[in-house]
Design a protein that fits this description.
- This protein is α/β, with parallel strands linked by helices.
- Helix 7 runs antiparallel to helix 11.
- The chain contains 12 helices and 10 strands.
- Helix content is 32%, strand content 25%.
- The two termini are 30 Å apart.
- The longest helix is centred in the middle third of the chain and has 12 residues.
Length: 309
């Protein structure tokens, strides 16, 4: 997660282009927590305290705040917390810079009804995280971790394969261009790519462990598992690829390479998209208007839920 703490990382770009979470995801985790699903105007919250770990720009804290009397949201990145404070004006939500190790400092013992982590749990050091979570989540309380990995462009397999090559390639992926594979932070990225399957809540402290997962491009999964599939303009997908942490690392390593949007000759994402557009005849036919084309983007996703004994 060190990428998001760098001074060169743009929390506002991340917030603008990262996908949001659909109501179906929140219905799943709230149903597991046994809270009734409400619509505005919301009734008084029945839950007491929500803990949002790795809150980023505060998306989850804002969306779940109607269900809880108080929300404590933490993130180790000062840029993310600054962005969350800029976007969040809710008296029930408290935002702090911090990580898993700070949980027991911020929260009283057995005071948390529900602990969540969206697109963050692959970074945790579970030797400490399970101990910290067990100390603050009350008996009968729940946890819900969820996240998403590499998206595929449905029906555009040739473009998806090119994106995979550039994003994970370790050697030359185009003449004079090395892939971004070395710039992923590990082991976090591989844990996410395996949909957090290696993360197992200790049976001595957690019960009712439930996993829902979806591999990208698999079309016959139950609806509650493929919660991140959406139609997007290619310009939006391009913007999303510029939020990849591997690209942030690549930029730091190649400060002389400026994107065409910045007036430069092009960076590796420009080159990648040039190859992708070239590979799809209908995109290529649009010329400079290729960003207006639409495509269905389907991410691999997981939800891990458990209840405190």
């Amino acid at each position: 997660m060190a990428t998001f703490a760098r001074s060169t990382f743009s929390a506002s770009t991340y917030a603008a282009f990262r996908p949001t979470y659909p109501p179906s995801l929140f219905r799943t985790v709230l149903s597991f927590h046994q809270l009734p699903i409400a619509t505005p105007p919301y009734p008084p919250p029945q839950g007491t305290a929500l803990l949002d770990i790795g809150c980023g720009h505060g998306l989850i804290a804002r969306d779940l705040s109607p269900y809880f009397a108080s929300v404590v949201a933490i993130d180790p990145s000062p840029g993310m917390i600054a962005e969350a404070r800029r976007r969040t004006d809710l008296p029930a939500v408290s935002l702090f810079q911090g990580g898993v190790d700070d949980i027991s400092v911020l929260m009283h013992s057995a005071s948390v009804d529900m602990a969540v982590a969206g697109q963050a749990a692959h970074w945790f050091d579970y030797r400490r995280a399970w101990r910290k979570l067990a100390s603050v989540v009350k008996p009968g309380g729940t946890l819900a971790f969820w996240g998403y990995k590499d998206n595929v462009l449905i029906g555009k397999e040739q473009a998806t394969a090119i994106m995979e090559r550039f994003v994970y390639g370790q050697g030359e992926v185009a003449p004079g261009w090395q892939g971004m594979g070395p710039y992923w932070e590990q082991p976090g990225r591989n844990i996410l790519r395996n949909l957090l399957r290696e993360v197992r809540p200790p049976e001595s402290e957690w019960k009712d462990v439930t996993r829902l997962e979806h591999e990208p491009g698999r079309m016959n999964d139950p609806e509650e598992t493929y919660w991140l599939r959406k139609t997007m303009k290619l310009g939006e997908v391009e913007g999303y690829t510029r939020t990849f942490s591997c690209f942030s690392g690549w930029k730091d390593a190649h400060p002389e390479k400026k994107s065409r949007a910045e007036g430069g000759d092009g960076d590796i994402v420009d080159v990648m998209w040039g190859h992708m557009v070239e590979a799809v005849p209908e995109w290529k036919a649009l010329g400079e208007r290729w960003r207006e084309a639409e495509v269905v983007s389907d991410w691999g996703t997981y939800i891990l839920m458990a209840r405190r004994r």
